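Notes from hallway chat w/ T.B., transcribed later so I don't forget. T.B. wanted the structure written out for a chain they're using in a teaching module, and asked if we could keep both sequence and structure tokens in one place. Agreed to drop them here.
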Amino acid sequence: MAAVSLDHVLALAAVLFAVGFVGLLTRRNLIVVLACIEIMLNAAGLAFVAAGARWGQADGQVMFLFVLAMAAAEVAVGLALAIRFRQAMKSLDVDDADRLRG
């Protein structure tokens, strides 16, 4: 079985990051925005792992563990904020956040 080249993996990571970024800019639902941020973080983690595997270093996997921990914290805080936002605004539309100013 042939190994996948670093260029292909980095291209996939770039496409995943771009998809997440476009979703972040175009979607209005708070849960979808959080999912797009997760896609972007996973793309960064994929790039770290691919670069680490290419040069035979464990640094890529270590950085991926840090990205994974950061993503878990982001999900926990983001979903808690989404629940409170839903209770306050009766909606998950991020455009309704302007009404929070009082």
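Follow-up for T.B.: The CA atoms of residues 31 and 79 lie 8 Å apart. Might be a good example for the class.
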